């Protein structure tokens, strides 16, 4: 077979002629002049050694060979449009897919409400799935495409990942509203003596989110280490002597429950960055690029996120 001699664009022209049965309409359908269409038809006839389309009173009639070829060519063109051409761009208005985001429970609380609002508006047929996995598994999930993005603070992002800063978070200390020993401030002595909850995704206290205290020589009385931020207010409500240091936005949400109050930390901790991470394999993927732009646009002025 002399496949190298066939201009594959001619298959698009064949498909249009088969559908329209008229040179002028077929030309208009694919954006060619009538002269260019006639020239392309002559090339098709030469390649297939058959007239393919014969003039008739109502247009063009396909020959038996054209009808036989048409079954396969129509399938090929449909497959190219669906499986190849559609991948060249991402149309959020019509796309139907599930975006998978790796994040902590704190990330769900911070990221999901505004992201869901925007995704429902801009990509109404897309859905979201949130997963939480150990840090050492994140790169593999992003590389395989099982997760599209990882959102949060990955202290030492693997070399295979791109990252983009979204916004900065500061810290506050959360205390039970029923703890009468603590007023509007928390002294260093109180902070060091009170039993604390430390949140660490790895389960190790020295990898906790508030481990920056160690740089100031503060000796913490860590009673519980947990990977779950959302357990903090419930545990403090059940055990009012416990305290925890969490990101400001999370502490603000917890304080709305009425069971805990937020106080400045005894030593001002430096803010930490929340970022989105993705694998180099999907750096140019149209859907991944669109999602990253959406998230960056939504959160770059955090906490003043768009309400639309």
Automatic annotation (TrEMBL):
Q: Which GO terms describe its molecular function?
A: DNA binding; DNA-binding transcription factor activity
Q: Which Pfam families match?
A: HTH_1 (PF00126), LysR_substrate (PF03466)
Every HTH lysR-type domain range:
6-63
Q: Which domain of life is it from?
A: Bacteria
Q: Which UniProt keywords apply?
A: DNA-binding, Transcription, Transcription regulation
Q: What PANTHER family does the entry give?
A: HTH-TYPE TRANSCRIPTIONAL REGULATOR LEUO-RELATED (PTHR30118), TRANSCRIPTIONAL REGULATORY PROTEIN (PTHR30118:SF15)
Q: Which family does it belong to?
A: Belongs to the LysR transcriptional regulatory family.
Q: What is this protein called?
A: LysR family transcriptional regulator
């Amino acid at each position: 077979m002399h496949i190298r001699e066939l201009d594959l664009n001619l298959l698009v022209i064949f498909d249009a002629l088969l559908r329209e049965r008229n040179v002028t309409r077929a030309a208009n359908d694919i954006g060619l002049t009538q002269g260019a269409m006639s020239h392309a038809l002559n090339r098709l006839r030469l390649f297939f050694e058959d007239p393919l389309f014969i003039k008739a009173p109502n247009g063009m009639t396909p020959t038996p060979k054209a009808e036989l070829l048409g079954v396969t060519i129509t399938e090929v063109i449909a497959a190219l449009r669906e499986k190849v051409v559609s991948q060249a761009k991402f149309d959020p208005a019509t796309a139907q897919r599930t975006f998978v985001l790796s994040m902590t429970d704190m990330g769900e609380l911070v990221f999901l409400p505004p992201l869901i609002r925007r995704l429902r508006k801009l990509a109404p047929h897309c859905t979201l799935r949130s997963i939480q996995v150990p840090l050492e598994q994140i790169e593999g999930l992003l590389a395989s495409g099982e997760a599209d993005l990882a959102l949060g603070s990955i202290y030492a992002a693997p070399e295979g990942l791109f990252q983009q800063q979204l916004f900065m978070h500061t810290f506050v200390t959360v205390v039970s509203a029923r703890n009468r020993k603590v007023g509007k401030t928390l002294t260093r002595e109180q902070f060091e003596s009170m039993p604390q909850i430390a949140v660490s995704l790895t389960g190790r206290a020295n990898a906790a989110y508030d481990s920056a205290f160690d740089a100031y020589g503060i000796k913490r009385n860590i009673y519980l280490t947990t990977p779950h931020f959302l357990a903090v207010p419930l545990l403090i409500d059940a055990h009012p002597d416990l305290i925890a240091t969490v990101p400001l936005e999370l502490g603000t949400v917890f304080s709305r429950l009425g069971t805990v109050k937020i106080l400045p930390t005894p030593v001002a901790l430096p803010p930490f960055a929340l970022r989105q991470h993705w694998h180099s394999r999907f750096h140019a993927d149209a859907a991944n690029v669109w999602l990253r732009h959406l998230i960056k646009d939504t959160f770059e002025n955090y906490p003043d996120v768009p309400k639309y």
